[in-house]
Amino acid sequence: MNLTFTEEQEMMRKMVRDFAQTEIAPFVEKMEKGEFPRPILRKMGELGLMGIPVPEKYGGAEMDFTSYIIAINELSRVSATVGVILSVHTSVGTNPILYFGTEEQKQKYVPKLASGEFLGAFCLTEPSAGSDAASLKSRAVRDGDHYIINGSKVFITNGGEADIYIVFAKTNPDLGSKGVSAFIVEKNTPGLIIGKDEKKMGLHGSRTVQLTFEDMRVPAENLLGQEGEGFKIAMANLDVGRIGIAAQALGIAEAALSAATEYAKSRHQFGKPIAAQQGIGFKLADMATSVEAAKLLVYRAADLRSRGVKCGLEASMAKLFATRTAVEVTTEAIQVFGGYGYTEDYPVERYFRDAKVTEIYEGTSEIQRIVISKHL
Ligand code: CAA
């Protein structure tokens, strides 16, 4: 067993760490005010970061999956907003076309997604179908060489900014999960209506919108896979997507641990640094141990995926543990900072606000436990 990164993976880590420090850190304040990081994504496209695991044949960097996870991990240490935009764009915005698309669909869409010219989004969740994704109500009816889609979606990450939406709708409502089909929908499709922007607790630079489909006409050639294969397409890509969100959570937790450790070394109370007070030292020890354990789970799942081994179980374990770690470590980081941690003068309150949603999106912690227990 080899627990070290390859030279190529280390180069990716260094490149993304430098990029995040020089390009993203100065943009964080704007994102906190709600600005979508378009200029950052453009630069990420130039560096090949918008299509890291995509084959060169389709315009990607053709690096291994672990390198992609390293990128999300590093970006999220500086901005969890940029981390989630990249994760959704790649794992569930691009990969469904790459793995389930026809050659024509791949040629048409993947190079633009991999270069960053296009941004991807994934539209599964509906107002009354969240964890129970198979109960979605959006309806797609074949009409000659088109499908007419009606319905609504909520909590769509990258919505309103994306060029391509992977949309799930029922072609046969009597068949439950086997009646769900997937479609590639372009942003200017008539009947695709971008609704309300959600005002969120965190991830302020990431757009999350409601979508409505009103007699949205999608060419039949944009059906992804076969009719009825949509649920499996969603689940298979979420298996992988969950490793990305776990890496995002890991990045947030690492940032909080690092900030808390530095602060504890410089803050003096009772005649010595608070890091030397056992109450704080033990807290930091527990935080560091959890972060290390999360890291091992995240990179173990990523390594399995890189080697083409099935990893749904390990992905769910990594997401469950890393996201819990992010919530716990960011909470404790505020405690280490005391009153200062509760102010916007330090970044730990942002880490805390950004961490919570990682336990919710791409399958709540309860859903991860369902997936894990089914495997057991
Ligand atoms: N890969 C491939 N196929 C799978 C699969 C997987 N991982 N999981 C299930 N399937 C297949 C099953 O094999 C089954 O098909 P067969 O009958 O032919 O075997 C079919 O799908 C139905 O499976 P289940 O009966 O297990 O499905 P279920 O209705 O009980 O639901 C669930 C399972 C795990 C709870 C699922 O509904 C789920 O994951 N829910 C959470 C939804 C979710 O994660 N949403 C995230 C939205 S995206 C997002 O959040 C992005 C963002 O903004 C950051």
UniProtKB/TrEMBL annotation:
Domain Acyl-CoA oxidase/dehydrogenase middle intervals: 121-216
Domain (Acyl-CoA dehydrogenase/oxidase N-terminal): residue spans on this chain: 6-117
Domain Acyl-CoA dehydrogenase/oxidase C-terminal: 228-376
InterPro entries in the cross-refs: Acyl-CoA_DH_CS (IPR006089), Acyl-CoA_Oxase/DH_mid-dom (IPR006091), Acyl-CoA_Oxase/DH_mid-dom_sf (IPR046373), AcylCo_DH-like_C (IPR036250), AcylCo_DH/oxidase_C (IPR009075), AcylCoA_DH/ox_N (IPR013786), AcylCoA_DH/ox_N_sf (IPR037069), AcylCoA_DH/oxidase_NM_dom_sf (IPR009100)
Keyword field: FAD, Flavoprotein, Oxidoreductase
Cofactor: FAD
PROSITE patterns in UniProt: ACYL_COA_DH_1 (PS00072), ACYL_COA_DH_2 (PS00073)
Signal peptide: none
Coiled coil, from the record: none
Gene3D superfamilies named among the record's database cross-references: Acyl-CoA dehydrogenase/oxidase, N-terminal domain (1.10.540.10), Butyryl-CoA Dehydrogenase, subunit A, domain 2 (2.40.110.10), Butyryl-CoA Dehydrogenase, subunit A, domain 3 (1.20.140.10)
Family per record: Belongs to the acyl-CoA dehydrogenase family.
Name of the protein in its database record: Acyl-CoA dehydrogenase
Organism per entry: Neobacillus sedimentimangrovi
Organismal lineage: Bacteria, Bacillati, Bacillota, Bacilli, Bacillales
